[in-house]
Every structure is written in C-alpha cells, then in structure tokens.
Amino acid sequence: MKLPTLEDILENKKCERIVSLVGLIFPFLEVHVVLGPKVLCNTNNADFNIFFKTHLVGPIAELYSNQANHMISFIIMVIVFDACVRKTIPLTLFSRFNIIQGVLLDVICSFLGITYSQLSYLVRESTFGELIANVAYFGIVGFILYSIFMILFGRYPKIPIVSEGARLNVQIFR
C-alpha cells in the first residue's frame, strides 16, 4: 500500500479548503487587537463588555501585548506569504490565492488601525471617530466571513483591490 504524498493530501478538496482558511487568521487577530477594544468594549451593556473583554478581545490582546509576539506573528505572515508566492509548498492555486488574499487583508487592517490611532483624540472619541472604527471593524470582519463562506463552497472570494493583488502575486511564479 502506497502512502499518500503531501501533494496528494493538499489536493484533496476538503484539505484544500481548510488550508485556504489559514490566511484569514492574520486579519482576524489584527482586527480584534486594533479595532476590537474600541468597537466591542465600548457599549453601555456591562455584560457585553465583560464577555468581549474576557473571551475575545482580552486573550487576543494579551497575545499581541508583547512586542516580540507581534514581531513573531509578522515574521510568520511574511514566511507564509513568501511560500505562497514562490510556490515552495505544493499548494493548489486556490489555496495560494486565498492565503495571499488573507495576508493582504491583514495589511489593509494594519493600515486602518494605524490610521485610526493617528487621528486626534477629539476625532477618535467623537461620533465620527466611532463611525470610522465601526465601519472599519465590521467591514474587515464582513470580508473575513464572506471569504470563509466562499472558500467553504469552493469559490474564489472577490474583494475589491485585494483580489486583484492576490491574483497578480499568484501569477508571478505560476
């Protein structure tokens, strides 16, 4: 009996879809560290605040609280991105595209978080600042959920600008 190779395992449809979801871990963690405390823990309901602080935002923020952990996460993201672009791991085109798209979505999330943190205190704490934070947070989370559903159905998620960047990176070393 012949043992399956790594290529055989990664070409299996179920495995391919699970591997494709790996790239979405980065924007999920980033959005909950950067914008999660402002959006999720800024409600008038004390039970919601406690729930989100103890079960979602708190543990993720604790993971990212150390600068070394943040750098390790960034290095892992760059290695995964490079491995997908250069095709050093025998992943399918579908998996590579979706992982690259997740990494690019993380870059956009980082940009939004840095831009939001550089706003003046007056703008950040105003209704307009809360609107910006909510739109950025729920937009990123919406793109992540949309990508998850499309990947699970075996379709390519189409996110404006991000999908085009992922497509160009996948085609470089095709």
UniProtKB/TrEMBL annotation:
The keyword Transmembrane helix belongs to this UniProt entry's keyword annotation:
yes
- The primary location reported for this protein is plastid
Give TM regions. 97-119, 131-153
**What does the record say about its membrane topology?**
Multi-pass membrane protein
Q: Where in the cell is it found?
A: Plastid, Chloroplast membrane
Which key words tag this protein in UniProt?
A: Membrane, Plastid, Transmembrane, Transmembrane helix
Tell me the Pfam families matching this sequence. TIC20
Which terms in the GO cellular component ontology are assigned?
chloroplast membrane
The cross-references to InterPro entries, in alphabetical order and at most eight, read:
Tic20
Family note: Belongs to the Tic20 family.
The protein's name is Ycf60
